[in-house]
Amino acid sequence: YKNRNPFPVRGTCQWFLGHANYINWRDSPTSSLLWVSANPGCGKSVLSKFLTRKGLYSTKPIICYFFFKDDNEDQKTATNALCALLHQLLDQKSDLLGYAVEVYNRNGDSFTKNVDLLWSILITASEDPKAGEIICILDALDECRNSELKYLLQKLCA
Predict the structure, then answer these.
(1) By C-alpha distance, which of 71, 76, 131 is closest to 98?
(2) Predicted confidence (pLDDT) per residue in 27-81, tens digit
(3) Integer Cα distance of 106 and 91 in angstroms
(4) Residue 141 CB coordination number (10 Å)
């Protein structure tokens, strides 16, 4: 879904890499949240797409992303966002797949519709030393279904 957003024009978005908030987040020794907000149409989604490029980081993090869009049912639920993040994570680090298999064995397919279970898999897998550095980009959180947004924000900010 990131391809619904245009590529940045050459030379744009570079300013962000020098911004103090980004540098502090990037250089933080602990997990942290970098929240980017601006008025509609200011280029946050283009910036998010730019930040999914692996070549931007001095380390080799796993980059997972989801672009919420309120005009597409598949792109406005927290469960689909978490499933997408997990799919990308486990695709890049298959030795973490056991965390999802364990939850699947206990819950069957229903786990894909449960924010708590999906979040638990994401957190447990990311805490595994084999995971390495993981960057998750969630774009347009305000376009997440209202009934799920507050719950997702609680998880993100906990």
Answers:
(1) 131
(2) 998 889 999 999 988 999 999 999 998 667 778 899 999 999 989 999 999 999 9
(3) 22
(4) 16
The pairs formed by 112-118 with CB atoms below 8 angstroms and a separation of 24 or more are: 112/79, 112/83, 113/79, 114/79, 115/78, 115/79, 115/82, 115/148, 115/151, 115/152, 115/155, 118/79, 118/82, 118/83, 118/86
CA distances from 133 to 52, 97, 130 (A): 14, 17, 9
The tokens for 64 are 């997972």
Query: 74 near 81, Cβ under 8 Å?
Result: no
- Asked whether 52 and 62 are in contact (CB, 8 A), the reply is no
pLDDT at 93 over 90: yes
pTM higher than 0.90, yes or no?
yes
Distance in angstroms between the alpha carbons of the first and the last residue of the chain = 27
Q: Which 8-state DSSP code applies to residue 138?
A: E
